[in-house]
Amino acid sequence: MSVVRPPSLTALTALREKLSARLPIRGTGKPGGGDPRSASTNPEGPEQSPVEAASLAGRGQAHTAQARGVRTLGGNLETVLLPRRAADAHDVVIAVEFCGLCHSDVHAARGEWGGRALPLVPGHEIVGRVVAVGSEVSLHAVGDRVGVGCLVASCRECDECRAGREMFCEVGSVGTYGAWDRFHDERTQGGYSTSVVVAEDFVLRIPEALDPAAAAPLLCAGITTYSPLRSAGVGPGSRVAVAGLGGLGHLAVKIAVAMGAEVSVFTTSPSKVDAALALGASDVVLSRDPEAMKAQTRHFDVIIDAIAAAHDLNALLRCLRPTGRLVQVGLPPAEDGAAQGGAGDTVAPVDSTLLVRNGLSLHGSKIGGIPETQEMLDFCAEHGVATDIEMVTAHELDAAWERMVAGDVKYRFVLDAATLTD
Ligand SMILES: [Zn+2]
Ligand SMILES: [Zn+2]
Q1: Region labeled Disordered — which residues (predicted)?
Q2: Is the four-CA dihedral 16, 214, 62, 104 of positive or negative sign?
């Protein structure tokens, strides 16, 4: 397997030191949700035509983006005029071309992960072109194709940030939407929008070899599956299983195959067998068939568990070789799992005897840091890994969300942002 080198962490750290010195924390709001000053910015910007707004954005000035968001939790997606700040010295202004639709968008907009300030414009799988840069931007230039994933800021100073694991920032990282951005005194709004303004060190380079629409979902689903495969040292000779074949699972299969592993898929649906094989899996295991599961005993080095519902982990643990690793990447609607129709009560607890007897590890994994996200994009470009997508217009978003919740998509919807102004 060829090794793709991440961008120099030292260079990024040096830039961040400069940046954090220039960007004093102006707000006192907590990171993430829950800031009481949720309506501190006018949710409807001044009236601007899309052409005027694009021109202002291209000059790095404050402008109004056309977006789709919810005005009530659980409501339909509606047009929202979104004020976007003028670029500061380290900001990049991006004209959004595509934005992937992630399950998290639906959970957030329906209040399934707690209250949110409204209106809420989701979207954290953003790809577009740079149209303006702040006076001190050095990582990106006008015309570059770039991306923004789940994070837009963090403290840049704690041990986690310095190690390139901004998602674990000790002070709290700032999510791409629905979070309080204490560096700019504003609530973040996502990529179902014609433009975004983001600090340069949270903006990724999208290699030109990647199809931009198919690259968008890599920024959340891609890094979520790449990171645990990479940290488990997956390569030629590894035996990997992927449980759950949805948006995350299909990328886990493609990435693990590209890393040189032998990959199996666990699914409850006989109808997914052909699709799994077409993605590069060499075997498909019907997980409701006890005999088929028994045949996999002590077989895998790593299992990526992308099932977003309560389920029996012991059945998967039994399929691991000694010292094997089971990694959870799926999140149920409520983060504590209690909202799964009470299923938490009926699923067997993890059998610690299994863990001890075979020296197994039970892991969790959460997206990935900025350097590793760049490494993943470069890896996907080099190995021709792309998301299988279905493009939707702004008018089709509600229907696409319904289909996504029903599992009726192969494998990721992507919004064509050009349709936001239709
Ligand atoms: Zn996501
Ligand atoms: Zn930090």
Answers
A1: 20-65
A2: negative
Percent of residues, the chain, with pLDDT higher than 90: 81
Tokens 């329906």, residue located: 110
- For the chain, the residue count is 422
Q: What is the CATH number of the domain that holds 311?
A: 3.40.50.720
SS3 125: coil
Biggest CA-to-CA distance, the chain: 66
- Region of residue 374 (phi > 0: left; psi between -120 and 50: alpha; otherwise: beta): alpha
Burial bucket for residue 390 (CB in 10 Å: 0-12, 13-18, 19+): middle
- Of 364, 382, 400, the residue at which a domain comes to its end is 364
Q: Are 69 and 385 in contact (CB under 8 A)?
A: no
Which residues span the domain enclosing 356?
221-364
The residue with tokens 């750290």 is: 13
Per-residue pLDDT band for 5 (boundaries 50, 70, 90) equals very low
Ligand nearest to C-alpha 157? 2
Ligand 2 is an ion; residues with CB less than 5 A from it = 154-155, 158, 161, 169
Going from the Cα of 171 to the center of ligand 2, the distance in angstroms, rounded, reads: 5
What is the distance in A from the centroid of ligand 2 to the CA of 174? 10
DSSP string, 306-367: ---S---HHHHHTTEEEEEEEEE----SSTTSTTTTTGGGTSPPP-HHHHHHHT-EEEE---
User: How many structural domains does the chain have?
Assistant: 2
Residue reference for tokens 């959870």: 328
Residues 349 and 372 in one domain: no
CATH number at residue 155: 3.90.180.10
* pTM across the whole model: 0.89
pLDDT digits (tens, 9 = 90+) for 89-129: 999 999 999 999 999 999 999 998 888 899 999 999 999 99
